[in-house]
Design brief:
Layout (H helix, E strand, L loop, with lengths): L2 H22 L7 H13 L6 H14 L2 H5 L5 H37 L5 H11 L4 H9 L2 E6 L3 E5 L9 E6 L3 E7 L2 E4 L2 E4 L3 E2 L4 H83 L4 H119 L4 E7 L3 E5 L6 E6 L3 E6 L3 E6 L2 E6 L3 E2 L13 H10 L15 H11 L11 E2 L3 E2 L1 H10 L9 H4 L4 E3 L9 E4 L7 E5 L5 E5 L6 E5 L3 H6 E6 L2
Antiparallel strand pairs: 1-4, 1-7, 2-3, 4-5, 5-6, 8-11, 8-14, 9-10, 11-12, 12-13, 15-16, 17-22, 18-19, 18-22, 19-20, 20-21
Helix pairs in contact: 1-3, 1-5, 1-7, 2-3, 3-5, 11-12
Length: about 625
């Protein structure tokens, strides 16, 4: 939109503000802070600024700054925001239509009026019509509008350029696109000021990707913690239920025991009463012989009545005991039914879970089969390509061997030589150009017979062969050992020699493998972070190798043991750049690195204390824990 059209748009927005204010007066409880936050959030999430966004943002700001926006009260906050936003959006769209129509009309008038000589009168009209846009035009002439992207996980929006004040009014996330004016190290936008050192001219794709992965990991961790808390809560509820059932059973048994004790006590009291009555009867009989017959009769009647009473009480006790037993059995039956019902519910739940697991497993197997089929097709195509390359290499090797034999026949001479190693590390092979069996270091004295290309030496009681290209006729001094920085390690690695037997076909590294090596090399010195695979956060061992190969279009799993099943196995004495080397500290594979040179140098995310570093697979520590090597290409 042209400058004069922006001015015209803001003029129309100012006019429409009065209408918005009249509508907002009918709204109760309008919260100014909430309205401001809503506007900030809208701006933060917009991918591109356009004419509509600019008009809407300005119109929203006009409404939020009115008295109505500060003092009106609305009971329902959701209705408030919805109605106000709707009003703003409709007004902004109508304004944009009017501005675009105005723009076309102005362009047409300029075309029609171009030949007219009455320029002073036209300039006077333009000056009077667009005097409201003068501040914006001057601002755009003094400050260039630029487009930037947030290049940090979280960036504060400030109301001023003073970083010491508590003036943060909002924030933006990584990758957010911002349009504004660059001045004094800040980017001035309509929402506030942003520090330019945290902005970039290009979209930070790796940073955004790293943030998304970090948020995904945090979300997974929260879900796991929530699941664990729910399982603990259910376990506590189950324990509480069992305790309550046990307590109820103990109370029931206690009640039965108390009842039995009460009945026994009552029977004992009755027995004692009977004995006392019998004693009194005997005493009475001795004293009152005259009334013996009469008393005997009365006592017989009383005894009969007592026996009937006791029989009735005994029958009553038996009836109560029978009733109590029936109630106990009914409770046990009810408890068994409840337990059976619960067991049935658990069985049904297990069957449901099993069916869901089987369905999930079937889907995973289907996806695995599809993936395996694609990988097989890709592998077949790669094998065909490798076969062609192998045939070509064999033809070249055959030609080189024929040339070597011809040269060997012409120069079949050997002589005795003595000298010193003139490179940091020099490989010792089991034959001229053969497999590596060890190494000698800079300054070591060597002697033996040579044909001019390789020197035959005594290495640990056996014959060994080293390249003549890295020997000196004069003694070589060795520098004192010092702790090397990452830069020195990298330089030393470049000096380590990979000898190539002149009469053998040279090893050709695949360009994609070298691309992966180059991608990994740029992260020397980066921190080791478990589970990380991004330059923005750091790397663990498999995270570094999967990231490096992803840069050349190869997808590897983020797990060292899983990566061991990719590519094909190569001998540790025939390594080349791009090969993956795997290690084990006891048990399964738990570490991986990427080879940078056939001398055994490799890059790996080692430990939290060392980060991403160079090491050598032929060092005793790594050689003892080496599991194997795989070549992806």
């Amino acid at each position: 939109m042209k400058k004069r059209n922006i001015g015209a748009a803001f003029t129309i927005v100012a006019a429409l503000t009065a209408g918005a204010s009249a509508y907002a007066t009918t709204i109760n409880n309008l919260d100014q802070d909430q309205q401001t936050n809503s506007v900030l959030n809208d701006v933060s999430n917009v991918a591109n600024y356009n004419d509509y966004d600019l008009v809407k943002a300005e119109y929203t700001k006009e409404v939020a700054n009115t008295k109505v926006g500060e003092n009106a009260k609305v009971d329902n906050n959701e209705d408030k925001e919805e109605n106000l936003n709707k009003l703003i959006e409709e007004a902004a769209r109508e304004t944009l239509v009017e501005v675009e129509a105005n723009e076309e009309k102005i362009i047409q008038e300029e075309v029609e009026e171009a030949p007219v000589e009455e320029i002073p009168q036209k300039e006077a009209l333009e000056e009077e019509a667009y005097q409201t846009e003068a501040p914006i035009q001057e601002l755009e002439e003094d400050n260039k509008i630029v487009v930037k992207y947030v290049n940090t996980p979280l960036l504060n929006i400030r109301s001023s350029k003073d970083l010491e004040e508590n003036n943060v009014v909002g924030y933006l996330t990584a990758g957010s696109k911002i349009v504004g004016y660059s001045k004094d190290g800040f980017l001035e936008t309509e929402d506030g000021y942003l520090k330019e050192e945290f902005l970039s001219d290009t979209y930070p794709e790796e940073l955004v990707k790293g943030e998304e992965e970090r948020l995904a990991q945090e979300e997974a961790k929260k879900e796991a913690e929530a699941k664990k808390a729910e399982e603990e809560r259910l376990a506590q509820e189950e324990t509480q239920k069992e305790a309550e059932v046990k307590k109820a059973e103990e109370e029931r048994l206690a009640q039965e025991e108390a009842k039995k004790e009460a009945e026994a006590k009552k029977a004992e009291e009755e027995r004692l009463a009977q004995e006392e009555a019998q004693k009194e009867a005997e005493a009475k009989k001795a004293e009152e012989e005259r009334k013996a017959q009469e008393k005997a009769k009365k006592e017989a009647e009383a005894k009969k009545a007592e026996e009937e009473r006791l029989a009735q009480e005994e029958a009553k006790k038996e009836a109560e005991a029978k009733k109590a037993e029936e109630e106990r059995k009914a409770q046990e039956e009810a408890q068994k039914e409840a337990e059976a019902k619960k067991a049935e519910e658990e069985r049904l739940a297990q069957e449901k879970a099993q069916k869901e697991a089987e369905a999930k497993k079937a889907e995973e197997e289907r996806l695995a089969q599809e993936k395996a089929q694609k990988e097989a097709e890709a592998k077949k195509a790669e094998e065909e390509r490798l076969a062609q390359e192998k045939a070509k290499k064999e033809a070249e090797a055959k030609k080189a061997e024929e040339e070597r034999k011809a040269q060997e026949e012409a120069e079949n001479k050997t002589y005795y030589y003595q000298g010193w190693v003139n490179t940091e590390i020099l490989n010792v092979r089991d034959s001229a150009g053969g497999n590596i069996i060890g190494s000698v270091k800079k300054g070591d004295y060597v002697e033996g017979n040579t044909d001019g290309s390789f020197l035959e030496i005594d290495y640990n009681g056996s014959k060994g062969y080293i390249s003549m290209d890295y020997l000196s006729d004069t003694e070589v001094k060795v520098d004192p050992v010092v702790e090397k920085t990452y830069e020195e390690v990298e330089e030393t690695t470049e000096e380590v020699v990979e000898e190539t037997y002149e009469e053998e076909a040279p090893v050709v590294n695949n360009g994609s493998a070298l691309g992966a090596v180059n991608a990994a090399s740029q992260f020397i010195g980066y921190p080791y972070v478990w589970g990380a695979a991004s330059p923005s956060t750091g790397f663990d061992c498999s995270g570094l190798t999967s990231y490096a190969y992803a840069q050349v279009g190869v997808s590897l799993p983020h797990q060292s043991a899983a990566q061991y099943s990719y590519g094909y196995e190569v001998n540790v004495n025939n390594l080349q750049a791009g090969d993956l080397v795997f290690f084990s500290s006891g048990g399964g594979i738990d570490h991986v690195g990427i080879v940078t040179s056939s001398d055994g140098t490799f890059i790996h995310a080692s430990t939290p204390s060392t980060g991403v570093i160079y090491s050598n697979v032929y060092d005793s520590y790594y050689l003892n824990s080496l599991v194997g090597a795989r070549r992806i290409f």
